[in-house]
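Handout, page 2. Input:
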Amino acid sequence: EAKRCGDIALETFPLDSWATHAMAHTYENQSEPKQVVKMLEETSKNWTRGVSFCQHIHWHKANAHTQLGEYEAALTIYDTHIEQCAREVTCFLCPTLAPC
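Output:
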């Protein structure tokens, strides 16, 4: 049910980063890290426009790569997209990376 609703949300509002985020959680909860990576790559043009929330979605992608044993891909995402958030932004969406 969650996947069906998420698909409808992304089709209807493709720029809604919350829908993208919800779908990442849906796939994570189903232990489908390949689907997380695939979905985030297919929708990246829509959710990479933000600032702090974009960083959190990148975290989901890095986490999926880690679950797949793709550590270099995860580190590249961290180095390219997440580290700056951790250093410069007080980000309520990535509390493990930046102070609240």
